[in-house]
Give the backbone structure.
Amino acid sequence: MKVFYFITKSELGGAQMVVYELLRAHKDKGDEVIVMAHGNGWLAEKTRTLGFEYVANSYMRKTYNPWILWRAGRTFVRAVRMFHPDIVSLHSSFSGFIGRIMLRRRYPIIYTAHGWGFTAGTSWLRKGIAIIGEKIVARYARSIICVSNFDRMQALKYRVVPSKKIRVIHNGVSVAQYRAERNSTGHTEIIFVGRFAAPKRQDVLIEGFSYISGALREKSHITLIGSGPEEKYIKECIRRARIESRVTILSNLSYEQTMLRLAQSDIAVLFSDWEGFPMTIIEALQLGVPVVANDVGGVSESIDDSVGRLLPRVVAKEQICKTLTELIENPSLRKTLGEHATKCGAQYTAENMAQLTFQLYADVSTTYAKK
């Protein structure tokens, strides 16, 4: 099978990790694949390492300039026509819009929505634009993959996609090889992996942690892994909370190094304003790390009190303080939660995701060929 992947950015993120796991499965099948995105980041390197062609689209950046948008689309269309794929697989909202509006029905398109722009927690302006845009281009996709049941319900709620077009395929990853012994420092290691940018909310963790008793703070440590435009603001939050000695920021770790740090942690935290089905949570579960997260997007489909703690969408600092205190004070509870987390994470493997995705590719390609 020949598959053309189009995604907005090549830097490491949840959508990019999904594409990478699919590429690994394509490699095993002997498929022909091309990937297009902006830049020459992590995904570009991984694509080439696997032996597939990567095409950089320098015009793929978030802008309202119609000339740049048109050139981004034309670059994409020319590459698709030269490759003549069996399936065009679009990932992330920007490339999903550009790809569908430019190709329309000339090729069988599958769009994967890694969280809708109109999901709960987004601004009304963003929500309105996203709903209108999706209603315009949804007709051009043969099928739309939602990465959570929550996202499926959002699509039906706002009537942007008919039910028959939607397929729910949860994100999958396989990171069990990074499992390691927990840290033996005597400190409780709390980790937050995510960009310093919306929708991630490292500041919520910092505020909640600052309310923990001084004795417990001294027995705990936070590691924030990521980079982004809000890093300066997060550092200011740490300074104002007077917990500089209890927080470390690591901005330049490789994916492999990040997984090793995650595997050695005691508690994984993810607070966000909105999400699809976060890859970070799946990685933590597979590594046996209890997860504390707020109830956004599809988070509740994998997190409950058997594997960590699920907090309200808008979470108060007092709730974070109480939850972290409970877990810091109870190593045996963390061990039990971690054991259950490993079993839960086994549901969301890259192999399962690829199998379901490739079956959809085959179904769509066959149906399109008959018309």
